[in-house]
Amino acid sequence: MTLSLTPLHGIPLIRQGDDLADILVGSLQTTRLTLEDNDILVITSKIVSKAEGRLVDLATVTPSERARELARQAEKDPRLVELLLQESNEILRVRPGVIIVEHRLGFVCANAGIDHSNVAPLHLPQDSPNLRGEEGVLLLPRDPDQSSRKIREKIEAQTGKRIGVMIIDSHGRAWRIGTVGMCIGLSGIPAVMDERGWRDLFGYELKITIVGVADELAAAASLVMGQAAEGTPAVHVRGFPYPLREGSFKELLRPKEQDMFR
After folding, report:
1. Class of the 55-139 domain?
2. What is the CATH code for 1-54+141-252?
């Protein structure tokens, strides 16, 4: 088995309303890659959020009393905390610098996935040097599975190839230091592979092995993308070692009654 991951070139700074499917097809051409059946495109949540208009100007946000109280505990901007509350089902932990939540999409993460990094300044020209978008924050896509499906279907219609599309974001983990790429939405690929009943090298039957293949691929793609100024928001994948099928991010969510970290 050979698994290859190739960063896609020529992707511009994404703005609201941009057609990501068209941009990705153009980037494949720029990178001199031709799609084949069973290829996968992995893209960052950031460019999906930008295209879908999920950029919020903090100056337009009025924090509630609860947001102000949590902001004092977490030492955060109360306007940011208000957005965090709107994007979350439940607040799980609060300490200075971080609020851990169950996001409205069902996963547990820090600060509801709301991000300042790589967000262009608001109210200023996009090409202004040495400026940061301190007043602009980016929310995660509203429905990443649906976003993945729309992008996949349009690319498949243009190319005639059967592919998968996955949206990833950087998350921390309860038992480890450091963030890793994790899947938050997908279409045309499995999120998990249930290997219970498979045999190992010595004929032992696997009893509990369920592999989070989407997260494994997300982490690999994240290594290629980078986290800072690399400007690589999409990766082409060939050689994924499992058959493609329709999947859903919800396959990855652990039921609350099995969550020992709550």
Report:
1. alpha beta
2. 3.30.1330.100
